[in-house]
Design goal:
CATH topology of the largest domain: TIM Barrel
Helix content: 40-55%
Order of helices and strands: EHHEHEHEHHEHEHEHEHH
Number of strands: 8
Oligomer: single chain
Distance between the termini: 22 Å
Largest sheet: 8 strands, parallel, barrel
CATH class of the largest domain: Alpha Beta
Strand content: 5-15%
Number of helices: 11
Bound molecules: (6S)-5,6,7,8-tetrahydrofolate
Shape: globular
Structural class: alpha/beta
Number of domains: 3
């Protein structure tokens, strides 16, 4: 399971404040902690101020890179911000994200192809988010046609089936898992990723929902997620799921984590 650390996200109140106040220490601490907790990428989202986004994103990138060389996952729908930000990264970043929206395919996919990035592909298009897995599968088929045509190999594509909150649609967990299952057998080289914490928006005891959903999605074939790597119970659930799904050879990772006291 690959982890994309979720915490440097300007839609979170404290991060928005840190960006506005140019609080370098707060951001660097989030970066270092998430790397120490095993993140393969750090998601970097500068929030929702369109005018300020490029500048804020670059400020984040430069300060994060001063304390870690873990690659970044640039989380923006703004092609201009991505184009400027990519000039500043030390390592090839993951791009979050493209989708079936023609505008994103036209403007963001070329950046991905040019720089050889990994890319998250959202199972949505310009119409409202599909409620059936069949429709989400159709959208991803179209997106993968486009990534292939652009020369992006399937192993660099991280399909995001969309984990919408179950608070407003009780089928959304099931739809996400069915989308993964259907696409996994067809695109064997592609990866599958979700924004885990979305699933629990608006409900109490969110960590419990996030943790249980991750286990279900891993059974469906999820191999990556944007999540809170500092949540130890979640890390324990990942290791235990990998053990039980036959993904942990000789139980090595499980035993190592046990010796470190993760399950106490
Ligand atoms: N797919 C893709 N990218 C994404 C999302 C996605 N980027 C943004 C978002 N969704 C994923 N990131 C977050 C980050 C934080 C939270 C939710 C989604 C969040 N955090 C709570 C907080 O800050 O207090 C804590 C959550 C918890 O209790 O676990 O809500 O879907 N490609």
């Amino acid at each position: 399971m690959k982890i994309i650390g979720e915490k440097i996200n300007g839609t979170r109140k404290k991060v928005a404040e840190a960006i506005a106040d140019r609080n370098v220490e707060y951001i660097q601490n989030l970066a270092v902690k998430q790397v120490e907790a095993g993140s393969t990428w750090l998601d970097v989202n500068a929030g929702t101020h369109p005018g300020r986004e490029p500048e804020d994103l670059i400020w984040l990138i430069e300060n994060i890179q001063a304390v870690t060389d873990t690659p970044l996952c640039l989380d923006s729908a703004n092609p201009e911000a991505l184009r400027l930000a990519i000039q500043k990264v030390n390592k090839t970043p993951m791009i979050n994200s493209i989708s079936g929206e023609p505008d994103r395919l036209e403007k963001i996919l070329p950046i991905v192809a040019e720089h050889g990035c990994e890319v998250i592909a959202l199972a949505m298009d310009e119409t409202k988010i599909a409620e059936t897995y069949e429709k989400r599968v159709e959208i991803i088929e179209k997106v993968i046609k486009a990534t292939r045509a652009a020369g992006v190999p399937d192993e660099k594509v991280y399909v995001d089936p969309l984990a919408m909150t179950v608070a407003t649609s009780n089928q959304s967990g099931v739809v996400a898992c069915e989308t993964i299952r259907a696409l996994k057998s067809k695109y064997t080289e592609a990866h599958f990723s979700i924004g885990l914490s979305n699933i629990s928006f608006g409900l109490p005891a969110r960590k419990q929902i996030n943790r249980t959903f991750l286990i279900l999605a891993m059974q469906a074939g999820l191999d990556c997620a944007i999540l809170d790597p500092l949540d130890q119970d979640l890390q324990a659930a990942i290791l235990t799921s990998e053990l039980l799904l036959g993904l942990d050879e000789n139980c090595l990772n499980y035993l190592k984590a046990s010796r470190k006291g993760l399950f106490e």
